[in-house]
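Q: what does this look like with zinc ion bound?
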Amino acid sequence: MEIPIFYGKRANDDKIETIMMDTEVYSCSSDNCNGWMRKDFATADLHCPICGHETVKEIRALPKI
Ligand SMILES: [Zn+2]
């Protein structure tokens, strides 16, 4: 069975075509923590899923899911 010669290039193309979306996220307000979560997957109390600190809403450009 032949291995398609374009396989590697195709993978790169897929990466380039990733669509970035301005997305609401909740970012940990602790200086010692880089935790954040997408609004769609936020914890019920909007506290950081990593350290439990309060979070602040911000907009980030993230790959569309
Ligand atoms: Zn945190």
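The CA atoms of residues 43 and 49 lie 7 Å apart. The chain has one helix and three strands.
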